[in-house]
Specification:
The structure holds two protein chains of two kinds.
Chain A (H helix, E strand, L loop, with lengths): L2 H15 L2 H18 L4 H32 L2 H6 L5 H31 L8 H10 L1 H17 L2 H20 L11 H8 L7 H28 L3
Helix pairs in contact in A: 1-5, 2-3, 2-5, 3-5, 3-7, 3-8, 3-9, 5-7, 6-9, 6-10, 7-8, 7-10, 9-10
Chain B lengths: L6 E3 L5 H6 L4 E3 L4 E8 L3 E8 L4 E7 L1 H11 L7 E6 L2 E2 L10 E4 L11 H11 L4 H15 L14 H15 L4 E5 L7 H8 L7 E5 L12 E6 L2 E7 H6 L6 H10 L7
Parallel strand pairs in B: 1-2, 5-10, 5-11, 8-9, 9-10
Antiparallel strand pairs in B: 3-4, 3-6, 6-7, 11-12
Helix pairs in contact in B: 3-4, 3-5, 4-5
The chains are: A mainly alpha, B alpha/beta.
Chain lengths: 232, 266
């Protein structure tokens, strides 16, 4: 088993045993349940779905921040690095694990949204819904990367607070209409999902996802640089 | 040096390699060599060398300086200045050490839900040990660390701090490291058991044990060192300490430091 696989397995098991995986999945289950159980029109359904996915994205970022910070604080990161696990491999393995866990919940919530939307009038357009839904995965990756960056440089409570302020604050500002969605990388994807009829152009969807992926890459790059320097 | 003299430079500080070297001039490496090492607030241009096979008990003012030094040597903290060579490998990157250096910190670093056997197997797997060799070393480490058979399959957190520390110690031994760095290890164990475990690691392995009570480990140590103001205030053998009629305590080392000329210190 490679070092990356070993660390990923360890990370997944730690997320499960610490109930952080449970918290993450419950966030997405709550989104699905809200969509499925509350009667609504298409517009209301998509609006709730977009807000719910944005909230679950914040939860994913907070779980990422707390996980990385706690692993450092309790000496587990140092224990692994001292056993020939390169720092970059450690960080990459944790990102893959966190992103995969959030991905499962995210896709499931989108699937529930589609099933709920298939009973409404008018029905959802599959292609447009799938494209907009897939685009919301990119800000989820960016949020996880930013959470990991916070967890790399800050202690656990500080990482939680910083992530809540940056990720949560940005998403809340966009949802409240205080900040245009185009100014927050990835937030535009949630706005497009919430209002499919007005923003059906694939170019806008691709642009929103692209900016979010750029933000994810920057977040991960900064986390990698910081991780080489922080004490473990 | 004459041209016809054969000089072998050995890259590893493994005592076995030195003992088996042919009768030629051998440039004897140090197991640990620090020059002008600075890190954090507690290490300031610290310099010292330790020969292979030394068992050093490290006292420090404050204790955090000893912890910091061990973490720098283990590659967990990047120094801000200076040069570090541990087990023949230069540089602060722990991941290049190939298992030649093992560190046991104040926090065992093992997940509480892991059993000792899982932790030992993971440690062996990360060192790329073949399966049969891994099992042999695990069995040996379990016996040396005194982990009971009933505890092997029990989550570490259910065995309390004692099981966590024994497990961390056993995992450190699995890699058969050339340099073993122990930071207040086994504090949860009775002093007699602690002394037994600390006397265990291979006779020619280099061991540094940081302790706020160096006298408890004096019987297992060959040398003692005091860190003060970020530098080595005293580095001596236990025999020299006894000749100076000084106890192997923090105060004894401080008294020795007061007698040594400044140039002799690191």
């Amino acid at each position: 088993m490679s070092r990356a696989t070993a660390v990923s397995s360890l990370a997944l098991r730690e997320l499960w045993m610490s109930f952080r995986l449970f918290v993450l999945l419950v966030a997405y289950v709550a989104v699905g349940a809200t969509i499925a159980l509350l009667p609504s029109s298409v517009v209301e359904l998509l609006g709730r779905l977009a807000v719910g996915l944005a909230g679950a994205t914040l939860v994913a970022a907070l779980v990422a921040a707390w996980s990385i910070a706690v692993e450092r604080r309790r000496g587990r990161t140092g224990w692994l690095v001292g056993r020939d696990v390169p720092r970059g491999t450690y960080l990459a393995a944790w990102f893959v694990t966190l992103a995969a866990a959030a991905l499962v919940g995210h896709v499931t919530a989108l699937a529930v949204g589609w099933m709920a939307g298939s009973t409404t009038v008018p029905r959802l357009d599959l292609a447009g819904y799938a494209a907009a839904g897939a685009a919301t995965l990119a800000p989820m990756l960016a949020a996880v990367a930013l959470g990991m960056l916070a967890g790399t440089v800050l202690p656990p409570m500080g990482a939680l607070a910083a992530t809540a302020v940056v990720v949560g604050g940005a998403l809340a500002a966009v949802l409240a209409g205080v900040v245009p969605a185009a100014l927050v990388p990835g937030a535009e994807a949630f706005a497009i999902l919430a209002d499919l009829s007005r923003h059906a152009a694939s170019g806008a969807i691709a642009l929103a996802a692209g900016w979010a992926l750029v933000a994810a890459a920057i977040g991960l790059g900064l986390a990698r640089v910081a991780f080489e320097r922080v004490p473990l | 040096m004459r041209r016809d003299e054969e000089v072998r430079v050995l890259a590893s500080s493994t005592p076995d390699a030195l003992w088996r070297a042919p009768t030629a001039r051998v440039v004897q490496p140090a197991a640990i060599s620090c020059r002008e090492l600075s890190a954090g607030r507690h290490l300031d241009r610290c310099s010292f060398r330790l020969a292979p096979g030394v068992r050093l008990v490290l006292a420090a003012e404050p204790d955090a300086a000893g912890t910091l030094l061990l973490r720098v040597l283990a590659g967990l903290v990047r120094p801000s200045a200076g040069r570090v060579v541990v087990a023949g490998i230069e540089g602060p990157d722990a991941a290049r050490r190939g298992g030649r250096v093992a560190h046991v910190g104040r926090e065992p670093g093992i997940h509480g839900w892991m059993t000792p056997r899982e932790a030992l197997r993971l440690g062996a797997e990360l060192l790329d040990l073949p399966a049969a060799e891994a099992e042999r070393r695990i069995d040996e480490a379990v016996e040396q660390a005194g982990i009971a058979g009933t505890d092997l399959e029990r989550p570490v957190r259910r065995g309390g701090p004692e099981l966590a520390q024994r497990t961390a110690f056993a995992v450190a031994l699995v890699g058969d490291p050339e340099v073993l760095l122990l930071d207040e290890p086994l504090a949860a164990l009775p002093p007699a058991e602690r002394a037994r475990l600390l006397a265990l690691p291979g006779a020619r392995r280099t061991v540094i044990v940081a302790s706020s009570r160096p006298e408890e480990l004096a019987a297992s140590a060959s040398h003692a060192m005091l860190l003060r103001d970020g530098r080595v205030a005293a580095l001596t053998s236990m025999a020299e300490l006894a000749d100076a009629v000084l106890a192997p305590t923090h105060e004894g080392l401080a008294a020795l430091a007061g007698r040594q000329p400044r140039a002799a210190r690191g």
